[in-house]
Amino acid sequence: MIMAKLPEELSNGMFKNNPIFIQALGMCPTLATTTSATNALGMGMATLAVLIMSNVVISLIRKIVPDKIRIPVYVIIIAGFVTMIDLLMHGFLYDLWKTLGLFIPLIVVNCIILGRAEAYASKNGVFKSILDALGMGLGFAGALLLLGSVREILGAGTWFGLPLWGDAFNVFIMILPPGAFITLGLLVAGLNWIGISKEEKRKQKEKEAKAAAQAAEKAGA
Amino acid sequence: MQVFLIFMSAILVNNFVLQRFLGICPFLGVSKKIDTAAGMSLAVIFVMVLASIITWLLNGLLVLMGLEFLKTIVFILVIASLVQFVEIFLKKTAPALYEALGIFLPLITTNCAILGLALLNIQNNYTLIETIFNALGAGFGFGLALILFAGIREQMEFADIPKPFQGLAGTLITAGILSMAFVGFSGMIKL
Q: Measured between beta carbons, which residues in chain A are less than 8 angstroms from residue B121?
């Protein structure tokens, strides 16, 4: 089991409380930037970087910031890091910066980042906050990559720009906005289905165990 | 004419929610009932127009001082304080309106549609008049999508949905189908 080996702080965001599939936070960039695997990965990494840096700083200053003005302070810190990422991407990853466009400055209002600042970094030490940011950020990036890959493969027949089957099979609507809603909806439904069938299996086993215990009791009597 | 095209394009062709994916959180969160959806839409239209005007003016100031790279930070602070200010102002002067919009106002600060709109106005080099109409269009477009969706969801309460599709999954797929309808408008207005 992978989950058993990872520290709790890390696995929490990646699986148990995945920001997209479980908490349904940060939906706008998730739906808008997953037209291809490359864009999805770029967005995921940008958010991960901002999340780690803001969690570190907020965790460091958590004892100095007065409680009443903490939210505006967090927002300014996050906005500062977002501006840094925006300028860096403009300088070094111009093509990606252009396709992601509006959604890079909009990382500021991504509720995952402010949510982690408020719920975790403002109450925990630096090291734990880094782990938490890594877990949440990777959970977010992973979900984006999954969604982006499905949409790119079905919609364009390529993956990270590499042609898989060319024009032989394209569902063009997958790249259009409706495809984003429907793909994410189906992925969430799939996860629900796995969860429900697991739950049912567990109940079935409990029932069998109970029946077996009763039978054993009867036999004993 | 240009102004009218911007207005219609923001409502239908580039619908903020269904085509641009801005403001998805309130779209999924406050769309269970038509009444609340209408209240939220009004609050969004109100704040969108105000925020657009103020950020447009402020951007002029930032450009003058050569500090354009600060616009994300400045805009988010302005929007957050504007929402607070509107809340206090409405409470004192228009209690009836405050009753109707009050609970939605704090939610709007983290609504990416407002910041997104402010940045789009600047990106597209709109004049002040164009900015106002773009904001009105964006607000009405948001309201249209939200109220349509709330209507569908009210009906869906009575539907027998398979278990894995209940909750978020079904909501997202319904939104996808609604979005498909809006794809029909794409390309009608080229700006």
A: none
